[in-house]
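Form 7-S
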Amino acid sequence: MATTSFQLTAVFRPLEDGWVQASIQELPGVITAAPTAAEAKAMLADALHEYLLALGELEAQPDGEQGNADHSPVAVTVDV
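Output:
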């Protein structure tokens, strides 16, 4: 199996209450917040993981239009 990798941009913003908001620039649905930057990085990786799992579950649902589509696993490495 071939491995495909790509880069995503992690964005960290301080919030008024001292927490740190973390998001993926290319995937607006991946967003989280934590009390520290280190915790926000860890939670962002988890949020991305859950987002990708949810996409897989949505794609697995029969929609009648997949026909002969080839579904191949893709490895994603995330450094935060």
